[in-house]
Amino acid sequence: MAIHSLLRNHFGYHAWAYNRLLSVLREMPTETYHSNSGLCFRSIHGTLNHLLLGDRLWLDRLQNKASTPTHANLLSFWLHDELYSTKDSSSIYWEEYIKDRHELEDAIRNQCELFKAFIDDLEAIPETFQYDRKGEKVVKPFVGTLLHIVNHGTHHRGQITAAISAAGFPPPVLDLLYYDPSAADGF
């Protein structure tokens, strides 16, 4: 499988897994969705915001937009003293990025489309890319970073799936091997 096909498949999976997860979450009461689920980012909503922020941050870097004010705002979420919630947390700043759950769902779907366009527009796959972080040049592997983005999503979607199950709802099946790229709900 060529690298471009591999990336297209993995980002198709990324969108498909989000679609499956979000459809289950639509059935969850708002109180449960926003409650402290014992997740690092407190609630399902906080964790989804963290995922969206991470996806936006990395796409900015990949598109050489790491020096923009928008990027600085995204990065500010990782600069807080307390990144994670505790079992007693009643709120956490991650939940404030996009407060409305329906707007957050739309933003996640849109971000998946932006990744699709980014992958589709690649004419060549570079070995590395670089971005500026606090005045220092950072060099990362291009393909490895893209695969990290999908892996990061898989990691936190798994945490959300556990929270769904703990709340008494049937969790979605999100395994990569169940993803069918020819189906309508992927790329």
Number of strands: 2
Model regions low in confidence, pLDDT < 50 over at least 5 residues:
none
Radius of gyration: 17 Å
Beta-strand percent range: 5-15%
Cα separation of the termini: 17 Å
Overall pLDDT score: 93
Strand order of the largest sheet: 1-2
Biggest sheet overview: 2 strands, antiparallel
Order of helices and strands: HHHHHEEH
| Class by SSE composition | mainly alpha
Count helical runs: 6
Q: Indicate the percent of residues in helices.
A: 40-55%
Question: Explain this structure to me?
Answer:
The protein contains six helices and two strands, in the order αααααββα. A hairpin with a 2-residue loop joins strand 1 and strand 2 (136-141). It is mostly helical.
Give the gist of this structure.
With 187 residues, this protein is mostly helical.
SSE blueprint and pairings:
Layout: H1 3-25, H2 30-34, H3 44-62, H4 69-76, H5 101-121, E1 128-133, E2 136-141, H6 142-166
Antiparallel strand pairs: 1-2
Helix pairs in contact: 1-5, 1-6, 3-5, 3-6
